[in-house]
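can u do me a favor
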């Protein structure tokens, strides 16, 4: 566990890493359910993404990061290896915890864990956030996923260092 100073009072924070293929294990089912709870709150309820799009059946094969404050799941990110490299996706922070640097924390953790070329399909509204982290737009063309405009962005830098301690469930 790590203590994070933010605009809020000091809060106990835990970043949990579910390795690829381990999310479907019975011992990790509760953690995966919390990741999905965050995504349901952000993508399905807030952004109107269909559950059938967000929950695409690939969760069990992917790695996941889960950010907890105490017992509250406040953020998640999915790491999926594709034919194009490692894709960071389903990056989400619940509304009440945004603007605290938590999205950056999750992305930096993922960049330290990911292998090979890394890319994202960034929502156009979030392009500036990813640029500030060091991603660059690969192609200016806008495409739509779940009726939301996106651009492909790549990470042109070396693998990062873990910005905090992570917990790997046994």
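np, heres the sequence
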């Amino acid at each position: 566990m790590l203590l994070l100073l933010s605009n809020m009072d000091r809060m106990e924070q835990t970043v949990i890493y579910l390795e690829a293929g381990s999310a479907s294990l019975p011992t990790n089912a509760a953690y995966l359910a919390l990741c999905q709870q965050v995504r349901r709150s952000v993508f399905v309820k807030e952004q109107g993404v269909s559950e059938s799009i967000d929950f695409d059946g690939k969760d069990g094969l992917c790695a996941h990061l889960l950010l907890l404050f105490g017992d509250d799941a406040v953020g998640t990110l999915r790491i999926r290896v594709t034919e194009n490299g490692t894709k960071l996706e389903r990056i989400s922070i619940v509304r009440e915890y945004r603007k605290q640097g938590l999205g950056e924390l999750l992305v930096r953790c993922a960049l330290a864990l990911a292998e090979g070329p890394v890319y994202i399909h960034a929502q156009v509204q979030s392009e500036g956030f990813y640029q500030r982290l060091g991603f660059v737009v690969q192609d200016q063309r806008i495409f739509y996923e779940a009726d939301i405009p996106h651009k492909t962005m790549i990470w042109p830098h070396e693998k990062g260092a873990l910005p905090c301690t992570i917990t790997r469930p046994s």
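Confidence is low (pLDDT under 50) at residues 1-10. hope that helps!!
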